[in-house]
């Protein structure tokens, strides 16, 4: 029986049960291979904004946007509105709408076939989408390719966080799970480098290279998943008990796995994932599954990462300078994620969430003020070089705050709080909310930039304030708690305990 510690306001602490074994080379390698699935997500985030800022791409597929951009460059149009096109934003956001729809059935695939084959399906779908985009002759082909990419993102986004959380020893679950976010940042940085080089290719076909190279990370996760074992949790859920015990012994590096195995069997007893997730005792986990990804998208980070080159061009940087600035923010993203890898299982989730939120809040408010002072109401104005440099520096600070807090932790937390029997359903809810909000923000950003102007940064700053207060009051600490004993966290939380009652045998997984 887990022995939860006393919980203060808004915080749950306690190490729970200790199991024999630790981090083995085998589990490190399997988690590293699985985490490479983050490359497909990151590459797409980074590639979209860069491609949509390439003149040759705009001329071929979005000529009206190209004409507005050229008019604005001559001082004859609005700096805020030159990229405002619903068709252009549909190119980016169609992926997330497809992922939203796919999330309704991906959970069933992950539960019935296992996490491994779900990852494989994601890689194959993303590979097909990359090929179609690279060969696109019209907007319809681009959007169909994006839909296939979205299905791939849905499979990877649901299965990989669960896989990492289930394979990792509980004392290092945060560190290994954040490997996924690290690969996402590497994917973003790689895409920014590719865009910077592809924009210089003569002949106007550089955008095809940018879009087509998405096949590389897709092939990596598709091939790599074939060599991965499935998790003991998934094997138990599907009735492969002896194989589950064998895999558990191998990943823990010890034969003494009886206690952990017994808890996994008990945790996997639920057989009604979609009905179980609606039960009162799972209300806290469901709230986290909805609110954490919702708040993550309303930090404004995808506005920065999708449209970094577009945004930088809007504030007066030239095409090459805009792409290089996006490369710089990508590098900052990687470095800051490494900070999270080192700190998450030492400092805990709450401290990183809170510090990152405060940092992002300050950066958003200052960026909005700088752009407001520089542009004011003059749509034809150009930001002075000193202002542009300050904006880039502040955006880098903002990206750093996100990358060691809401970036990795918004993936980690939902993957570790649900009981085994409803874990795929819970992750599907998280994925669906994430994709819905990403779609909404991506689709609305350029029109909002046109109409709200610099006030858009204050809009996102307000959401950052709200989510930081949510963390302070309602998000418990899950550092060091075994994933199958997570119920103790909710039973001892000042607010959530009213929804959760210990089950008859005192099992921590409720």
Automatic annotation (TrEMBL):
<dbReference type="InterPro" id="IPR003663">
    <property type="entry name" value="Sugar/inositol_transpt"/>
</dbReference>
<feature type="transmembrane region" description="Helical">
    <location>
        <begin position="142"/>
        <end position="164"/>
    </location>
</feature>
<dbReference type="InterPro" id="IPR045262">
    <property type="entry name" value="STP/PLT_plant"/>
</dbReference>
<keyword id="KW-0769">Symport</keyword>
<feature type="transmembrane region" description="Helical">
    <location>
        <begin position="23"/>
        <end position="43"/>
    </location>
</feature>
<feature type="transmembrane region" description="Helical">
    <location>
        <begin position="286"/>
        <end position="310"/>
    </location>
</feature>
<feature type="transmembrane region" description="Helical">
    <location>
        <begin position="455"/>
        <end position="475"/>
    </location>
</feature>
<dbReference type="InterPro" id="IPR044778">
    <property type="entry name" value="MFS_STP/MST-like_plant"/>
</dbReference>
<feature type="transmembrane region" description="Helical">
    <location>
        <begin position="176"/>
        <end position="199"/>
    </location>
</feature>
<dbReference type="InterPro" id="IPR020846">
    <property type="entry name" value="MFS_dom"/>
</dbReference>
<feature type="transmembrane region" description="Helical">
    <location>
        <begin position="87"/>
        <end position="110"/>
    </location>
</feature>
<keyword id="KW-0813">Transport</keyword>
<keyword id="KW-1133">Transmembrane helix</keyword>
<keyword id="KW-0762">Sugar transport</keyword>
<feature type="domain" description="Major facilitator superfamily (MFS) profile">
    <location>
        <begin position="30"/>
        <end position="479"/>
    </location>
</feature>
<dbReference type="GO" id="GO:0015293">
    <property type="term" value="F:symporter activity"/>
</dbReference>
<feature type="transmembrane region" description="Helical">
    <location>
        <begin position="322"/>
        <end position="344"/>
    </location>
</feature>
<feature type="transmembrane region" description="Helical">
    <location>
        <begin position="356"/>
        <end position="375"/>
    </location>
</feature>
<comment type="similarity">
    <text>Belongs to the major facilitator superfamily. Sugar transporter (TC 2.A.1.1) family.</text>
</comment>
<dbReference type="InterPro" id="IPR005828">
    <property type="entry name" value="MFS_sugar_transport-like"/>
</dbReference>
<feature type="transmembrane region" description="Helical">
    <location>
        <begin position="387"/>
        <end position="413"/>
    </location>
</feature>
<keyword id="KW-0812">Transmembrane</keyword>
<dbReference type="GO" id="GO:0016020">
    <property type="term" value="C:membrane"/>
</dbReference>
<dbReference type="InterPro" id="IPR036259">
    <property type="entry name" value="MFS_trans_sf"/>
</dbReference>
<feature type="transmembrane region" description="Helical">
    <location>
        <begin position="425"/>
        <end position="449"/>
    </location>
</feature>
<feature type="transmembrane region" description="Helical">
    <location>
        <begin position="205"/>
        <end position="228"/>
    </location>
</feature>
<keyword id="KW-0472">Membrane</keyword>
<dbReference type="InterPro" id="IPR005829">
    <property type="entry name" value="Sugar_transporter_CS"/>
</dbReference>
<protein>
    <recommendedName>
        <fullName>Major facilitator superfamily (MFS) profile domain-containing protein</fullName>
    </recommendedName>
</protein>
<dbReference type="Pfam" id="PF00083">
    <property type="entry name" value="Sugar_tr"/>
</dbReference>
